């Protein structure tokens, strides 16, 4: 236990160190004028009211879904209920562990399904969703299947390692978690993304040439420009840069092709900023260290809680519920820190887009268009900001564009 606790502390220090070094805590150069974000300056009263109403309508099902996660996790990490239910199962240890994980996920899915339908109905009412219930259900089941697969593999591997090395299983578990996270990050664009979207090359023309030329000027090698068929799911606008090395490509939603080309270029310039500063690689490294940290935390917390939860050892299949509960709690608790870092990284990508396009006026127009089309929350509550905001708000992003314009003597939007 002591060695695992020391490793846990060491990994925690390593994560903090990497995050501290790689996170751009100040997106603009020192001396940039402060501009206060003000939704009323860029959005009409009706647009603000619509954003507030949408936030209120989606907030309750979102909070209820979070509550379901916390309640289920709390039951499994604080009571022996999970172990008692698993004890009724029969068969080899691995089949009991798999059945336990599947049962937990199926119950959670059943509880969340009405909440998901509620959320989807709101999206349709506001014109953001274009899905049928059939396609919505298919997407939800695909996501469920991927989560179940990863969780089941994690639980079975941990229990198997604990059976083989009861006091040292955290060592191979940490190494395996680190390696698996790296591998998944690299294969995700070519294995997982096609499960949810179809992609086609952007047709030859001025836009494609412009995007590839911008990437070349920015020193970001790009293999292709693809269009994702997002319109079969949503009316929202988005783009991203996916992949590494020879697999790196610019991906734009087909819905984005409806907006003016200068705005598309600015959105892609933002995404190129992530590639330019290796945000995905840094995020992968932090994620891999976090996965190793999580493996050590499972060892320490699992051994501290196993008696309370009626688990004789973490090598027993009755530990499956405890492990799932601990992972769920860890995911929720780490969310605010991840969002904090993400907001700073996104701000740096915005600054990068402004630097390579030198067009703060179009940048502000693009952010306004995105916020209106996507019905972004223009002034989230502190709790929502901490729990859900992985990006700066649209008023914050527009205010930064004004700061950048003042700093560089450009036209202020």
Number of strands: 4
The main sheet orders its strands as: 1-2-4-3
Classify the helix fraction into a percent range. Answer: 55-70%
Overall outline: globular
Largest sheet: 4 strands, mixed
Along the chain, the helix and strand elements come as HHHHHHHHEHEEEHHHHHH
Termini gap: 58 Å
How many helical elements? 15
Mean pLDDT: 93
DSSP strand content: under 5%
How much is the radius of gyration in Å? 23 Å
* Class based on secondary structure composition and strand pairing: mainly alpha
User: Residue ranges: pLDDT <50 for 5 or more in a row?
Assistant: none
Sequence-ordered SSE layout with sheet pairings:
Layout: H1 2-22, H2 39-42, H3 45-78, H4 81-87, H5 93-125, H6 133-164, H7 170-191, H8 193-196, E1 199-201, H9 206-217, E2 224-228, E3 239-242, E4 249-253, H10 261-276, H11 279-305, H12 320-357, H13 360-374, H14 382-388, H15 394-408
Parallel strand pairs: 2-4
Antiparallel strand pairs: 1-2, 3-4
Provide an overview of this structure.
The protein is mainly alpha-helical and about 425 residues long. The chain has 15 helices and four strands. A four-stranded mixed β-sheet has the order 1-2-4-3. The protein is globular and about 70 Å long.
In a few lines, what is going on in this structure?
With 413 residues, this protein is mainly α.
List keywords for this structure.
413 residues, mainly alpha, 4-stranded mixed sheet, 15 helices, 4 strands
């Amino acid at each position: 236990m002591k060695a695992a606790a020391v490793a846990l502390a060491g990994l925690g220090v390593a994560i903090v160190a990497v995050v501290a070094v790689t996170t751009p805590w100040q997106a603009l150069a020192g001396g940039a004028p402060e501009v206060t974000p003000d939704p009323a300056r860029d959005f009409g009263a009706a647009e603000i009211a619509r954003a507030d109403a949408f936030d209120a309508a989606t907030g309750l099902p979102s909070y209820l879904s979070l509550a379901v996660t916390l309640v289920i996790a709390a039951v499994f990490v604080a009571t022996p209920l999970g172990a008692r239910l698993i004890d009724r199962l029969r068969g080899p240890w691995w089949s009991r562990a798999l059945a336990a994980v599947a049962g937990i996920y199926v119950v959670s899915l059943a509880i969340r399904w009405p909440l998901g339908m509620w959320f989807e109905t709101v999206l349709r009412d506001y014109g953001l969703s274009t899905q049928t219930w059939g396609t919505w259900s298919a997407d939800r089941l695909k996501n469920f299947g991927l989560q179940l697969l990863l969780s089941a593999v994690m639980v079975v591997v941990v229990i198997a390692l604990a059976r083989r090395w009861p006091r040292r299983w955290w060592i191979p578990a940490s190494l395996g978690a680190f390696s698996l996270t790296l591998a998944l990050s690299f294969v995700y664009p070519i294995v997982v993304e096609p499960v949810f979207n179809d992609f086609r090359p952007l047709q030859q023309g001025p836009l494609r040439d412009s995007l590839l030329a911008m990437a070349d000027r920015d020193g970001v090698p790009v293999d292709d420009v693809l269009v994702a068929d997002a319109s079969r799911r949503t009316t929202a606008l988005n783009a991203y840069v996916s992949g590494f090395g020879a697999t790196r490509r610019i991906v734009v939603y087909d819905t984005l092709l409806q907006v003016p080309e200068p705005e598309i270029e600015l959105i892609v310039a933002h995404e190129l900023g992530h590639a330019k500063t290796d945000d995905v690689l840094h995020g992968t490294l932090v994620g891999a260290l976090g996965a190793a940290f999580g493996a050590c935390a499972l060892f320490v917390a699992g051994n501290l809680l196993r008696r309370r939860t009626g688990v004789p050892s973490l090598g027993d299949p009755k530990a499956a519920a405890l492990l799932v509960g601990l992972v769920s709690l860890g995911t929720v608790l780490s969310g605010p820190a991840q969002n904090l870092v993400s907001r700073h990284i996104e701000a740096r990508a915005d600054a990068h887009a402004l630097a390579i396009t030198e067009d703060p006026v179009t940048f502000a127009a693009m952010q306004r268009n995105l916020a209106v089309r996507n019905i972004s929350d223009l002034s989230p509550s502190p709790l929502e900001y901490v729990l859900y905001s992985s990006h700066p708000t649209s008023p914050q992003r527009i205010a930064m564009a004004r700061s950048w314009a003042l700093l560089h003597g450009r036209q202020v939007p």
